[in-house]
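Question:
Now give any protein.
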Amino acid sequence: MLANHYVLLKNERLKLYKKPSTWVLMGVIVLLTLFSLVINKLMFRSAGGYSPSWQEQYNWGLEDLNGQLKENPEEIYTAQSIEALKYLLGNNISPQDWRTDLVFEYYNLKAEQLSKGEIPGQKQNEGKPIIQHGDWAKPGMEYGYAENRNMTDGERQERMEKLQSILKSNDWRKFIDFKIDDIKSGLIGSNSDQEKQVNIEMYELYRQHNIVPISDMNNNLYYRGYGPNQENNDFLWKSREIETIRQNKLSVLRGEDENGNLLTKNRIRNLEQDINVALKRLSTNTAPISYNSFLGLLESSASEISLISILLIVYAGGIFASEYGSGTIKMLLITPHKRNKIFWSKTILMMELTAIALALNFALAFIFSGVFTAFKGIGSMQVMYVFGSVVQLPYLLYIVLRFLILVLPVLTYGALAMMMSVVTRKSAISIAATMMLMFGGNIVMGILSVVSQGKVLPGIKFLLFSNTELSSYLPSASSAFMGGMSSMVDGTMTLGFSVAVLAVYTVCFLWIAHDSFCRRDVK
């Protein structure tokens, strides 16, 4: 029996691999993958092309403020903004440094003193604060500066002395204590006692893991954070992980996300998983992977796996139809081999071709990514949630798993093309119909999202097109650069659900193809 299967596979291999068109198409797909890899590298490089230093940006701010002060010499807040920037530049305090928050707040308080005439010889003046208190100062937006506008003269003076003392000591632990006191006293607002406790716990995480905090750069009017890969800088990523934990915990408490959307049970579970992953990342000192590193670039090539679908659809769409069209199907059926064995031999060859194309893509992407980055960081680790627990594993192993997961939709479309080939017995129709369904799927989902107006349509998650973007479920080094992962059409969907749906579709397509091939007569 095994010998018969081997003979059938050998014959199919001879027919497939001796065709120049097979290798030409595979070569084109590989070249497209490499072209995409080069484009990604150029995009990452352009993102980190010209990077003005923070000193340059502060000096630009000084030039602008000095121009404003010339037009309005009595503008107190503008004058104090200039003093704040001069202090930061003179003491070499970068925008990420936690002391930046204290400096801006100190000069903001000083400007308030001057504007209220609390310092003798100064003219009263009402102007714009150095840092404008917008949404970040509302209750629930706890990482802004304390709201100082209603302070008494004595409270303001006392706070300025505290700020000066912490700046002089240059002790970030005192800064943490200072912020915790602000939360407890209500200077930094919280919506509830539970949220207040969450914010205190987040500051205590800094002390627990010996993490030097960073300033709230979103409130810095004179720095916009140009430069490559800021998110993964060792000085920043730990603080960003803590901020992720804080925001996720607050969202779970409130039952809604930052945009006010109600959280489903599945979404809450995902947020809790993200919290555990971030805590594990902090405890193991596992930094996120840089998107322009070797592993980040190699991972980005996984998005081009969908190109293999073209190769597989062309092959699967003609694997049976070509036999019917040329008349060789009759010669094939008069051999001692049963139809069942013939069908599965062709199916196995379809999977073999996919495996060869996938391995070739991975190998070339590995080599070219290494050439671009000198294989820097090849041994880096990844922290992720797997089968109910948070695990740490080599990022290279995770990328291999990512390739294997993302090839599943390719196999599903290959099974669809094979089914069309058997049913229609026309290569052109099989290939065109499958291609149309594959590329038209995104259009269909786009139309449905417009029609639903943000609401989840019943049953939409069971459509084939809703489950082909498996990358939406997987963490990615490029998510920060590309603006995050794409969203699912239904918040209750999981990776396991989409894989199960694809498996059901694949089995159904193969069953229909098998039944049609084994039962239909050949004329």
